[in-house]
């Protein structure tokens, strides 16, 4: 399959590498020039569960793709939420009438942007529990196991969605079809809505945060706000299961030493965060539905304040 990874950061690099190793024709598109140069010069270098792997993948800056002759079968979106619209504009020439677009962005409501460029029947929404980190331009750390759930938005698109599931699973990305992806997205939103913002504000990994006295109370309150908003959109969240999943992130023997993507963006790379599309989205929706969301609202403000303190760009 001819696949574009739109947003080749840590997660995009993981998916690009694994799909390339499964003999798909993959190109990466990103906006970080140092990362692009490093991959073009040295290949994508990965610490893949302790094994050093280097693969030669094509990568382009999103401002330079308008003339590339590549009619994609599948686009997987990993760009930052606030960059989604500009990325979709950049890759229009490579998106044909049969191209499927799988959105794996953190956050809620991205289909509202994508449908301006792609028919609803070609849009897939997904949720992934894989993790990854960037150690330096062109160098990523890929560890642990994960999975993907996805679903077609158009009523007649399940067959195409199942084809994408098969391609991802052949690449050992553990994909499966979901009949209710919105619930999966909200469940992942609970994990992102706790681990991302809190570890960023506290400058900690997930294990260190989980061992604090206040961790349980804060996490339970944030999850309750997500669950209340999700219920208004007929998305089911099993709160005890979600809390158990979040607490499993504290395990130092598995992923507890990981710093979430928002931490990597702001603390390591001095980039603006996606907080408006995670906790900020719950705060906006809570206001619309008349649901109090004090923890999500406050955490959103705290992260924005930290962005300003650090002069993030």
TrEMBL record:
The keyword Cell membrane does not apply. Residues 3-153 form the Ketopantoate reductase N-terminal domain. It is an enzyme of class 1 (oxidoreductase). Pathway: Cofactor biosynthesis; (R)-pantothenate biosynthesis; (R)-pantoate from 3-methyl-2-oxobutanoate: step 2/2. It holds the Pfam family ApbA_C. It catalyses: (R)-pantoate + NADP(+) = 2-dehydropantoate + NADPH + H(+). Keywords: NADP, Oxidoreductase, Pantothenate biosynthesis. GO terms for molecular function: 2-dehydropantoate 2-reductase activity; NADP binding. Residues 180-307 form the Ketopantoate reductase C-terminal domain. GO terms for biological process: pantothenate biosynthetic process. InterPro entries: 6-PGluconate_DH-like_C_sf, 6PGD_dom2, ApbA, Ketopantoate_reductase, KPA_reductase, KPR_N, NAD(P)-bd_dom_sf. GO terms for cellular component: cytoplasm. The keyword NADP applies. Its EC number is 1.1.1.169. Catalyzes the NADPH-dependent reduction of ketopantoate into pantoic acid. Belongs to the ketopantoate reductase family. This is 2-dehydropantoate 2-reductase.
């Amino acid at each position: 399959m001819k696949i574009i990874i739109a947003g080749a950061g840590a997660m995009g690099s993981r998916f690009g590498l694994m799909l390339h190793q499964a003999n798909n024709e993959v190109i990466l598109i990103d906006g970080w020039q140092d990362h692009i140069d490093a991959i073009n010069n040295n290949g994508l270098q990965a610490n893949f569960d302790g094994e050093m792997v280097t693969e030669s993948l094509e990568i382009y800056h999103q401002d330079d793709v308008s003339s590339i002759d590549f009619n994609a079968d599948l686009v997987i979106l990993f760009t930052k939420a606030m960059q989604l619209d500009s990325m979709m504009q950049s890759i229009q020439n490579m998106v044909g009438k049969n191209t499927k677009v799988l959105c794996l962005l953190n956050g809620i409501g991205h289909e509202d942007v994508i449908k301006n460029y792609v028919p609803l029947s070609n849009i897939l929404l997904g949720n992934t529990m894989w993790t990854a980190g960037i150690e330096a331009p062109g160098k990523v750390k890929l560890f642990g196991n994960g999975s993907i759930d996805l679903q077609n938005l158009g009523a007649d698109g399940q067959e195409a969605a199942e084809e994408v599931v098969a391609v991802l699973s052949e690449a050992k990305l553990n994909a499966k079809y979901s009949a209710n992806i919105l619930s999966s997205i909200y469940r992942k939103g609970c994990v992102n809505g706790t681990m991302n913002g809190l570890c960023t504000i506290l400058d900690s990994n997930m294990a260190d945060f989980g061992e604090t006295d206040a961790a349980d109370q804060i996490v339970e309150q944030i999850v309750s706000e997500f669950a209340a908003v999700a219920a208004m959109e007929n998305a089911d969240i099993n709160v005890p299961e979600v809390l158990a999943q979040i607490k499993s992130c504290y395990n130092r023997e598995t992923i507890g030493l990981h710093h979430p993507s928002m931490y990597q963006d702001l603390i390591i790379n001095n980039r603006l965060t996606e907080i408006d599309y995670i906790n900020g989205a719950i705060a906006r929706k809570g206001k619309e539905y008349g649901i109090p969301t004090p923890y999500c609202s406050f955490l959103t403000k705290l992260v924005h304040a930290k962005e300003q303190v650090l002069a993030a760009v």
